[in-house]
Specification:
This protein is α/β, with parallel strands linked by helices and 373 residues long. It is built from ten helices and 19 strands. The longest helix is centred in the N-terminal third of the chain and has 13 residues.
Length: 373
Amino acid sequence: MHIIITELDKQQSKTQEFPELNLKVTSRSGLHPTEINLLNQKIKTEDMKHTLFINNRTGVLPIFFSNTYADASINVLNIDFHHFKKVEDNAKLNNAKFNNMCASNYLPETKLTQIFLQIDNTTYSKEYYQDIFIQHYKLLTKKGKIFISSDKRIQWFEDFLRVFNISYTLEKFNKHEFVLILRKTVDFPESISYNDSFQLSLPDKPVIDFFSLPGVFAHHRIDEGALALIDTVKVYQNDVLLDMGCGIGTVGIALAKYYQPKQVIFLDSNARALDCAKINAHDNHLENCLFFLTDEGLKAKKATIFVGNPPYFSNFRIADLFIDNAYSNLAQGGTAYIVAKNIKHIHKAMLKVFNNAIITSRRGYNVITSVKY
């Protein structure tokens, strides 16, 4: 079997061979060790009956197993829409079909016989992995099996399993790569939850309640950058507000509650965050809201206000995406507000795109404001 997940030519790509599996994989730079170590696991056919892959970013694992075990029900779950699209594209490239592929919080209620979970120790919090483990552990049939692969030993996860008397074995591949293997023998107490709720309370403004799930930005608190935007943005009742990278909806919901714009559009690439935004908009009785799960943004050209708090990674690529979306989505005369601590690149980019940019300092952050003329 030869799985190809890149369109680069041979000189620019890397092909890895797995002789015991009769498998070759061609990719841009090689598979991550967490995926390789799961490929090398000895799997029983009966365990493959209903299998779930969580946080797989290439599609190689589910593609390989769907081709190897023709009768298996293959399910793939990512909360990040960018990774979801990558897996979807690679499945199409290799003519692979999965029974269920989700960019969402949890897999819809179904019985599972096996789970493969890849843990990236830099992207998501410990609470997220514990929460997603518990939610899908509950879907396992008795004696169902879980493989958890990490690029370093996750002692905190082992401690978490011991608290609930869950036995496991540990496979060590080298100094930094580990796989935990366990079978379902006990159930989790129904009371275990990592969800959180908190309030936004500003002087002379109504109190707003927020619900949050682990795996979203600022899970336990109101972010100061969001507060800087709320303090700075001017909104009127005929405005259409677009909140890009909305997270749990803090900025868009607060501005909607305070100023009653005509419509609020929420965008995020994190399915958990967008679900929280939907819950929070509903619980705060907001109407005329739209929600889009996207890693590219929109090109609606109908907003009058754009707000964004872009993440700091990816060498400003995502910040540039926010700025491009601000210009593309704003109507003539619309205003973009983008908050950041380090404003040098963003200020320069907004000047280039909008030909104007004003900096307002607030709460230790800077809000850069540009008008589309």
